[in-house]
Amino acid sequence: MVFARKDLFTLNYYKKQPYTASSNGTRIRLKKESDEAGDYLELITWPEPFCFEKTPEEQKTAYRFEYSEEGICAVIEWLNENLN
Length: 84
Hints:
Radius of gyration: 12 Å
Number of strands: 4
Shape: globular
Strand content: 35-45%
Helix content: 10-25%
Structural class: alpha+beta
Strand order of the largest sheet: 1-2-3-4
């Protein structure tokens, strides 16, 4: 699957719930998170077949992106480079 900007939602969507998808045997979860440095987008990847809650933590990998339109574009670029 090739990801395009139209495949992901606006920033406000991620304030309320995560976005999940899968591509080529990898599942993804994108969600807004916050820490002392501010807001950011957290992308977590893990191998199929299990859902996020049923997958052991050691099989999940997290990545941080800026919480902005540029961050969304960076997520799309990362997904296309790493999942295709």
